[in-house]
Design goal:
The protein is an alpha+beta fold and about 300 residues long. It folds into 2 domains: about 120 residues, 2-Layer Sandwich (Ribosomal Protein S5, domain 2); about 160 residues, lpxc deacetylase, domain 2 (lpxc deacetylase, domain 1, 2-Layer Sandwich), CATH 3.30.1700. It is about 20% helix and about 35% strand. The protein has 6 helices and 20 strands. The strands form 5 sheets. Strands 11, 12, 13, 14, 15, 19 and 20 form a 7-stranded mixed sheet that branches. Strands 2-3-9-4-5 form a 5-stranded mixed sheet, covered by helices on one side. Strands 6-7-8 form a 3-stranded antiparallel sheet, with no helix packed on it. A hairpin with a 4-residue loop joins strand 4 and strand 5. Helix 5 packs parallel to helix 6.
Length: about 300
């Protein structure tokens, strides 16, 4: 079991939101141990806890809210924090959506590392999967299995000639996250953009912050960062979503054709099935090494 973590110094970044197209500035500040992750809409004087109970929308992004105030597209920032094992943090934002930056978590990783990581004088509990737990939601299926560490296996399928099925399975460590997951960018289909914008979404989307697939292939001149970048980004999203359970997960999560909606429903169903998991304290952690992530 590791010590809880926050950051040493506050740090800021800014940019436009993927869906709203609006400019926001984000300031990340250290928080005391056991505080968890808290968002503050400074322009609305509203505090929103990063937890499954705060999720109010999962259409094309994960949106949290409280008392009518929303913060859209929190999953990439949450994923970066989880990937680096940051447990306690205050995130101040003066707009309705976390900036998309380049559509991945690479810049976010650099921003957090620039702030520095501080260990706190208290151990971090884990949520351990005790028995197989299976959740199905339409075409999506997610299973959580006992595992000596933290592992994610993810499969997606799209009927597009550029790619069909992609699958990735790996143990989640800080090194693996930074190298194999964080650089993967969000993606979308050109044919869907008009629909999204008609419905008030993707107003800030561009070739600078997303991979766009047209009928004849990828429109980005830079190409892909990974041959299987699409499934890697799905893993990135899921790590951010899974962090909303409030504890690092000690187990193997297997997801097939899942997205934000299924991820959040899976977490809520898992939390309501207490015989499938327990909370490991310092005295209960196995003696074998633990691979950790704040999911």
């Amino acid at each position: 079991m590791r010590l809880q973590r926050t950051i040493k110094n506050e740090v800021s970044f800014e940019g436009i939101g993927l869906h709203t197209g609006r400019h926001s500035k984000v300031t990340i500040k250290p928080a005391s141990r056991d505080a968890g992750v808290t968002f503050v809409r400074t322009d609305k004087h509203t505090v929103i806890k990063a937890h499954t109970g705060s999720v109010i929308d999962t259409a094309f992004a994960t949106t949290i809210g409280y008392d009518g105030v929303k913060i859209r597209t929190v999953e990439h920032l949450l994923s970066a924090l989880a990937g680096l094992g940051i447990d306690n943090i205050i995130i101040e934002i003066n707009g309705p959506e976390v900036p998309i930056l380049d559509g991945s978590a690479t810049e976010l990783i650099s921003i957090i590392l620039k702030a520095g990581i501080a260990k706190q004088g208290k151990k971090r509990p884990f949520l351990r999967i005790k028995r197989p737990f299976i959740f199905e939601d339409g075409h999506a299926k997610i299973a959580a299995l006992p595992y000596n560490g933290t592992r994610i296996t993810y499969s997606i399928f799209f009927s597009h000639y550029s790619f069909g099925e992609q699958r990735l399975s790996l143990d989640i460590t800080e090194e693996n996250f930074a190298r194999e997951i964080a650089p993967a960018r969000t993606f979308g289909f050109l044919k869907d953009i008009e629909y999204l914008r008609t419905n008030g979404l993707a107003k800030g989307g561009s070739l600078d912050n997303a991979i766009i697939l047209g009928e004849n292939g990828i429109l980005n001149s830079s190409g892909l960062r990974f041959k299987d970048e699409f499934v890697r980004h799905k893993v990135l999203d899921s790590i951010g979503d899974f962090s909303l359970i409030g504890f690092p997960i000690y187990g193997h999560i297997i997801a097939n054709k899942s997205g934000h909606s299924a991820n959040i429903r899976f977490l809520k169903k898992l939390l309501s099935t207490p015989d499938a998991w327990d909370i490991l304290t310092e005295q209960q952690i196995p003696t074998s090494p633990v691979l950790h992530i704040n999911t």
